[in-house]
Model the fold of this input.
Amino acid sequence: MVWDPPPRPAELAESRLISAILDGQFPINTTLPPERDLAVQLGVTRPTLRETLQRLARDGWIEIRHGRPTRVRDFWHEGSLGVLAAMAHHAKHVTPAFVENLLEVRLALAPAYARLAVERSAAAVADLLLDYLELEDLAEAYAEADWHLHRVLTIASGNPVFTLILNGFAVLYTDLARIYFAETRMRRHSQRFYTELRAAAAARNGAAAEETTRRVMLESLSLWRQTRFAGRGRRAAR
Done:
């Protein structure tokens, strides 16, 4: 058996600091404790702490100011895709509103990369979707297949920026997809999408692929909202 290597001290310190920022222990626009004190709190050496701070600064969590205390940035407005990737590993901080934000981003991007993918690689897209006609009717199967489809579409679009953005929330995407596809109606809805998108690809019709994808992504957002509010209602009734 191959075991995953244990996290390095800098990685553990980074995760703990991100959690502390997200928990509000170190609020936005406040400053971190001095290095000596912070290293003691985290249980790491000062060189390890400096490596950790450099990683956090790179992704936009903090601002290192020489001769002045390190500032906690407004990471929602000053962060990079690294913030998005980190959120995938801090699931307890992912709010329903944040999920909607991700779905809105997908709604903005997916129609464009679906059209480009069909225009550039229609046959490959149609062949891929042939396998989607007989997906195992399980949330896990749909979650993995849906992620794979969107990733292939971004690659086939010929624009690597689409792929980089999608990869930024890979873990979060599949985790949330398992929740989304837990309901049968969500799986049926996506199955219709795969069928319609395959028809557009088989016809080499990029405009149809774009229109279908936009409509389905908008419907998916609406379905997620319905599920969210239904969950609230069930909790309130208890």
